[in-house]
Structures are given as C-alpha cells and as structure tokens.
C-alpha cells in the first residue's frame, strides 16, 4: 500500500471510528470497539474496500498508533480523538511533571482567558514531548507550544488518562497551569 492510499484509508477509518460510525451503519460497542468483520463489510459496502492484511498494515504502521486491535484481534477501535459519546474505559494515571500542547496563535487570547478546553473532543489532548506538540499545532499553521504543569494540576485533583498511543488526556487545563515559552 502506498502512503497516499494509507492516508486515505486512515482518514476514512478515523472518521468512522471516532466521529460518524452510523454513516456506514456501524455502532461502537462499549470501549469504542467494533468487530473487524463488521468494519470490513461496512467499508466494502460504502465504496472503500479494505482487506484484512491492509488493515493490519495500517494499524501497525500508523505514525501515531491511531487504531488498536483488542487482545484477540477480532475487534478494533480508535485509541483517542472521538467526538461521539464513548467510554474508552481508560484508568486514571499519574502524568509526568510537565506535558505540552501545540496550538495556533489565534487561539491564544481565549486560551489565556479560559485555559485549554476540550472543544469538540472528549478531552484536552496533551503531548509528552515538545516535538509532538509542535506537529499537532502545525496542523493549524505556525504553532505555539504551551507547557502544561501537569504534575501540579494532578496534585490539585486534575484527573489524567494516558491513551494507548502516548497521548495524555484531561478534562481541562485552567490558565494558571499553562506557561508560554
Ligand atoms: C484549541 C490530532 C480556543 C486547541 C492531533 C486546538 C492530536 C482552544 C483546538 C489530536 C481552547 C482543538 C488533538 C480555548 C483549546 N479557546 N481554542 N479555550 N482550548 N483550544 O483538533 O489538541 O491526527 O480538537 O489548542 O495530532 O489540536 O486526529 O485538538 O488547537 O493528537 O490522530 O482548540 O488530534 O490527532 O483542536 O489535536 P483539536 P488538538 P489525529
């Protein structure tokens, strides 16, 4: 599979495993899971046929490990990024002292006022390193990197989760826990 094809399929899967499962007749099970057989049948029925081996390749090669199979390999889910109501059944975890968030300069005035909000997603997404945060922010132009005092927020009662692919999730980050470098 070439890179272009992989990106196209990855976007199709992201759309339906995170945001619009119903659009191809899927319903996410508890934990966000979908039976692989059902997913492949739904993709084929909606003009985007994917073979099982292509799916395996996509899951293994995804730069950000966006998708994961369950232990039996019969179900698949997106690891994070959902907008549909889903309980990923993640356990709260202790974050590192600092985490990072990349955003666009235009969002800064609001972020300074309200802190980081989850917007359309279920959580605010934070990165363990500046490099990843820079890539996330660069999706919207020239990125600004914010340092998040995750340890302090956790100590103050903030509940953090670590998704299977190293993204840290939290309900919100109030402005006093943000530093602009
Ligand atoms: C901003 C991609 C105004 C926030 C990425 C961001 C990531 C505010 C945008 C993952 C705000 C939301 C998540 C406030 C936050 N006022 N703007 N109070 N608080 N914002 O896409 O973190 O490719 O929902 O800074 O790589 O950019 O999908 O979140 O710019 O891992 O796998 O509102 O999505 O991964 O945007 O990205 P998003 P994000 P995938």
Walkthrough of the structure:
- With 181 residues, this protein is of the alpha+beta class.
- The chain folds into two domains: 3-78, Orthogonal Bundle (Arc Repressor Mutant, subunit A), CATH 1.10.10.970; 92-180, ADP-ribosylation fold (Alpha-Beta Barrel).
- Helices cover 32% and strands 17% of the residues.
- It contains six helices and nine strands; from the N terminus they run αβααβββαβαβαβββ.
- A three-stranded antiparallel sheet has the order 1-3-2.
- Strand 7 and strand 8 (168-170) form a beta hairpin.
- The longest helix has 17 residues, at 3-19.
- It is globular, with a radius of gyration of 17 Å.
- It starts with a helix and ends with a strand.
- The structure holds ligand HQG.
Primary descriptors:
single chain, 181 residues, alpha+beta, Arc Repressor Mutant, subunit A, ADP-ribosylation fold, 2 domains, three-stranded antiparallel β-sheet, 6 helices, 32% helix, 17% strand, binds ligand HQG
């Amino acid at each position: 599979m070439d890179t272009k094809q992989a990106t196209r399929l990855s976007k199709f899967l992201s759309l339906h495993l995170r945001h619009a499962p119903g659009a191809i007749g899927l319903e996410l099970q508890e934990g966000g899971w979908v039976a692989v057989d059902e997913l492949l049948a739904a993709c084929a029925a909606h003009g985007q046929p994917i073979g099982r081996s292509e799916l395996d390749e996509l899951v293994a090669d995804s730069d950000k490990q966006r998708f994961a199979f369950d232990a039996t390999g019969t179900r698949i889910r997106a690891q994070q990024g959902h907008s549909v109501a889903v309980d990923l059944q993640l356990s709260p975890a202790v974050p590192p002292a600092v985490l990072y968030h990349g955003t666009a300069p235009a969002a800064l005035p609001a972020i300074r006022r309200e802190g980081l909000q989850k917007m359309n997603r279920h959580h605010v997404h934070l990165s363990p390193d500046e490099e990843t945060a820079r890539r996330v922010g660069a999706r919207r132009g020239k990125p600004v990197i914010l340092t998040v005092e995750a340890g302090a927020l956790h100590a103050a009662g903030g509940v953090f989760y670590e998704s299977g692919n190293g993204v840290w999730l939290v309900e919100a980050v109030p402005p006093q826990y943000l530093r602009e470098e």
